[in-house]
Structure formats: C-alpha cells, structure tokens
Automatic annotation (TrEMBL):
Alphabetized GO MF terms: hydrolase activity
InterPro entries, A to Z: AB_hydrolase_1 (IPR000073), AB_hydrolase_fold (IPR029058), Epox_hydrolase-like (IPR000639)
Entry superkingdom: Bacteria
Gene3D superfamilies found in the cross-reference section: alpha/beta hydrolase (3.40.50.1820)
Hydrolase among keywords: yes
Stated name of the protein: Alpha/beta fold hydrolase
Sequence ranges assigned to domain AB hydrolase-1 in this UniProt record: 39-281
Keywords: Hydrolase
Length: 298
C-alpha cells in the first residue's frame, strides 16, 4: 500500500498496515491489526501511537494470534477532540474500543501510560483478559511529584507547558530521542512518523494532558481509581510476563521490584541496553519473548 495521505502513510514502508476504525462516544478510534486467533492487544503510551508496535504485529500474527495495536483517543490516527483528557476518560475510551471489537481471551501488552489505562480496562473486564505482558509502566500511582523526572515540573507550569508541549512540540522532539538508548535508531524517518499525528497546537493537547495528568497523592481525584487498578493486578494469578529496560528514565529496576511483588508468578526479563521506548531499542528481544510466553501458556 502506498501512502496518498496522512492516514495511508507507510513511513517508508515501515508501517504497511491498513487503518481500521470504530466509533466510541462520538469519536472515531483507530487501530491496526493482522492475523487471526486469540487477540494480543498492544497499548502505547505518551507521546507515541500504534506505530511503536510496528515490529511486533507481523511476527505475532505469524505465530497464530490476532495482533491489534489501538491508538488511544488524542493519539495516532484516532480523533483528537479539543477537550479535557483524563485517566478515567482514557480507560472509558479504550474500553469502548475493545468492547466494540468484542475481544475475549486477550493477552494485554502495555507500556508507559498504556499500563494504567490498559490494566484499567482489565480491572473492569477481567473475564476478557487471559494474560498480561508489562513492558515498563508505573505499577502504582505516585505518592509525590518528586517520583517523576524533574523535567515534568516544566510541563505542569501554566502557559509554559502549553508553549513547550503544544507550541514547540518539545515532548515529541525531546522525549522520544531521549527515551531511546540506541541513538542510531533515532532516524529522520522515525521522528517524522512520531511527529505525523501531531502537526499543530490543538493536536498535541492529549500529550500535554498525559504529561500533567499523573494521579499524584491521595488528594488527586483519580488516585483511588489507579489504586483500584493496581490492587486488581496484585490479585491477578494468570500468566504474566514482565520485561524491564534497565536504561528507562522513568520505570526501570525500581518499578520492576514492585511489579515482581504484585505478580510473583511472572516470568521476568531485563534488558541492559534499552531505554523507556524499549519497543524501539529491543524489539528483536521482546517479540520472541512474547511469542515464547504465549506458546508456553496456551
């Protein structure tokens, strides 16, 4: 398929997947998929989109599964309404998306904000989730803002955050290359793919909302919601796989220790030379681990 518009751009053939859409709450939500069989749903974080799973989809489909990578509302090729994006709203939206596809026996693959959002769906619909694959995500809500990298204080500043994130696109242009350990993989083509869904000020609203939206401390209105999600994960005793990139600036070995306590049955892999966006740094390792995990837990 050759690109003739932003929704068909293959970014040099690296993203050769046809777009699929469902309507949820008046918004058009996008996903890509390939294969058939039990669904493997891969949920992205900030400021990425389904493109980050492009190297996962073909091999997982080839192993006999239905590989699905949705774009969260406000990201990728999903609609970007000019509205307030919240953690609860993202769970609602993703839940509507996955229920519209009527997915069952799901293997849920999550990373970054995709963790609390994807697992929020799982906590609501545990009967639809069979296996968990957690790449790197926060295991529990933050108790204090000091648990975040210092740069996040800039995003929370009124006006400054809007200028940097929405005006200058600093989150995409800064966090993506900073979060990939293997700098030779930060190519012009890759950056063009990550900039593509966010061409202007309004299209970047969801990026800023994520940068500011961590439920920090018990007084935050969504702290209890994320705590309930974490408590559900701690009770999950199905098959689980934990993959931790040790060069992650946000959720490295310290977060892995908490995940191990929550999911003592999990298989664990660590990657020395991978950063926060481990799908870019280490898909050559991660994808075979996921397929092996799927086959070991039929």
């Amino acid at each position: 398929m050759s690109g003739s518009g932003p929704e068909l751009d293959t970014f040099g053939g690296t993203f050769p997947f046809a777009p699929h859409y469902v309507s949820v709450g008046g918004a058009r939500l996008h996903h890509v998929e390939a294969g058939s069989g039990e669904p493997v749903v891969m949920v992205h974080g900030n400021p990425t989109w389904s493109y980050i799973y492009r190297n996962f989809i073909g091999p997982i489909a080839g192993a006999g599964y239905r590989a699905i990578a949705p774009d969260l509302i406000g990201f990728g090729r999903s609609d970007k309404p000019v509205s307030t994006y919240t953690y609860r709203g993202h769970i609602d939206s993703l839940t509507g998306h996955l229920l519209a596809l009527d997915l069952r026996e799901i293997t849920l693959v999550v990373q970054d904000w995709g963790g609390p959002i994807g697992l929020g769906f799982a906590a609501r619909h545990p009967d639809r989730v069979k296996r968990l694959v957690i790449l790197n995500a926060r295991p529990r809500p933050f108790e204090a803002a000091t648990q975040l990298p210092p740069i996040f204080a800039w995003w929370r500043e009124p006006i400054t955050g809007e200028v940097l994130v929405q005006g200058l696109n600093a989150f995409v242009d800064g966090m993506i290359p900073n979060g990939i350990f293997k700098k030779e993989r930060v190519t012009a083509q890759l950056m063009a793919a990550y900039r593509s869904p966010f061409p202007d000020f309004n299209s970047r609203a969801a990026i800023l909302a994520f940068a500011r939206g961590h439920p920090i401390g018990a007084s935050h209105p969504e702290y209890k919601l994320e705590s309930r999600t974490s408590n559900w994960v701690a009770k999950f005793r199905g098959p689980a796989l934990l993959i931790c990139p040790l060069r992650d600036h946000a959720y490295g070995a310290r977060a892995l220790g908490v995940w191990r306590e929550m999911l003592p049955q999990a298989t664990v892999h660590t990657i020395e030379d991978a950063g926060h966006y481990c799908q870019e740094d280490a898909h050559e390792w991660i994808v075979p681990w996921i397929i092996e995990f799927l086959l070991q837990h039929p």
